[in-house]
Every structure is written in C-alpha cells, then in structure tokens.
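Final report, closing paragraph on structural work. Over the funding period we assembled a curated collection of sequence-structure pairs, and we close with a single example.
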Amino acid sequence: MNKRIFLLSGLAVAASALAAPLPYDESANAKAEIEQALATAKTHQGKVLVIFGANWCEDCRALDHALKADRSAKLIADEFGVVKVDVGRFDRNLDVAAAYGDPIRKGIPAAVVLSADNQVLYATRAGELADARRMSDSGIYDFFRNVTSAARAKQ
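Its predicted structure, as stored:
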C-alpha cells in the first residue's frame, strides 16, 4: 500500500512539473519583442532586461522561478521591462545574442541590461548565472540588485 501511495504521489509531482508553464516561448520573435520593450522603456525612462535561455535548461527554469519570488519579482518589475529569448539548443536567436556581445558563450541563462536607446549597460560574460539552480533566491536577488546598481551607474 505504501509503495502504491508513493508511486502515485511521485506521478502527481511529475505531472504537475510537466504542466507548469515553460519560461521561454520557442515561437516568439525575439527581435520584435526587444524592440517593443525598448519602445516602452523610452516612454517610461526604463531599462530592458534580456534573459537568454531555453526550456530544457534546469538553470534557466530555476532562474525564472527565482525571479518570480517576492523580493526579486519586485526588484525586476521596478527596474526593467523583461524579454526572455529562447536559444533552443544553441541553434536559435544566436544573432540576437551576438548583437549584445554573445553573453551565452559561457552558458545559459545569460542576461543583458539595455538602456532605452539599446546600449548595453551590463551583460553576463563569464557564465555568472549558468549555475542558477545552485544559487539561493537571496543569491539571485543580490546578483540582480548589483546588476541594477551597475546599470544605473552607466546611465
């Protein structure tokens, strides 16, 4: 009986994980989404956070989950318009990544902060987020708080 309950609960957890929405829209037009976010940033004196990743990537999903946590969600919402760019299996939107200095070269997820006039204010260059699943929610919050400060200093 205990084995059956354990098996059924395991199946329920697996099913809910599969039902969770995936963070990256594989059919999205990344260039158009970035252009729209930049236009919005111009009218609101804001910045754009572009996050490169893929749905198969555990670290990308962990980062997405952490960015929805209380403090991080507020920080991101207050500071940025967000665009998630799917890189597939490093075979999709590579031209977009290249346009911003190839932040995915050392792994995904990767992030770029853009000014409203499409200038790079910050970019991951050394795979800083590539181990996001091993970072705590506080670690991710601290990372983006520091990114926010660095981006403000460049504006």
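The helical segments are 2-19, 30-44, 58-67, 70-79, 94-99, 137-154. Residues 5-18 have pLDDT under 50 and may be disordered. We thank the funder for supporting this effort.
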